[in-house]
Sequence to fold (366 residues):
Amino acid sequence: MRTFFAFLLVALVGQAHSSGDTLRSYRVNDFFRAIPELDQRVEEVFLRLSDEQRVAQMIMPAAGKLGKSTAHVQRLIREGKIGGAILLNGTKTEFTNFSRQFDSISVANGHPRLLYSADAELSLINMKIKETQKVKYANKIRSFDVLRKETEKICAELNAMGVQWNFAPVVDLSPNSTVSFRSFGLNKDTIIQFSNEFIRISQARNIIATAKHFPGHGYVVGDTHKQLVFIDGEMKEVDVYKPLIRDSVLSIMIGHIAVKNNKKYDTEGLPSTVSRKIVTGLLREEMGFRGLIVTDAMGMGGVVNVPQCGLKAAKAGCDVILMPRDEDAVHADILAEIKKDEVFRDQVYESVKRIIRIKIILGILS
Fold:
């Protein structure tokens, strides 16, 4: 029996090497590491995509009860205009079926498989994804042991559904009523420590974790779902992100939050989502974040009335445009812009390579 299995292993290894494949498997935290063969694979995948397919990687619509119709998402997949989907309000069974169905459509039409995300926050997963294990609200967690147990539940559910990207944890300080029950509280040290543990466990389970909502939703007045809100003066919550970045959080979500009365970072009456000062100047350059930057939902009241907001978010430096009102228009806008602006084209290409890199690491692309 041992001889048979040894022969089978040798045969499989030989087959893999003869086809030019690598036996190396990656983990989410390899994203930030210098791995020459991974860098080479990213370039190979990038070069075989058209510009239309490249731009598509940046666009992520919603599927599910609060998203676009299944037929609409399927059409976008067939036409190669999206690179992923957020599964928004439904059941675990529905989401599992979506990921399988959408991937089969994408592959059948010669496009890359999709990256799937969800708002699987501690305080929201049971409301947004039915049939999932009961999880404690973030603001009710008082110990690392409980946090680890609840985070493991979430990771198990996402892995079972084929969801690789979790838009959690919320790292806002809690005074604002729209984030209060979704945050770990008001104490900055507690938020950092609990958030880092949630991120560590998630990424060890090959789930991309996301710190949100940069540059900070806790001290603003109002709800970005309904309107543009403002940080008036000092950005008090930015420091929360520094240790999370240092400890390798893989993604950060930009909130539709404007900054005023701040000489260096004033967003001139526009949300941070479309502000190059905030996304590229502060987050990328000053804070040194090298991971994935994703917008909050682009149909929200805090941004939706900005003309060509999807294109402007990409120009600000966002890698993934989440839930645009019109995916076709965003795809066309970015594609047209890269054809006439070489600097923007190179920036888009870097965004696309980041997305390809994580897709290879997760086994979505080979």
About this structure: Residues 342-361 form the longest helix (20 residues). Residues 47-361 form a domain with the TIM Barrel fold (CATH 3.20.20.300). Residues 312 and 349 are 16 Å apart (CA to CA). The two ends are 32 Å apart (CA to CA).
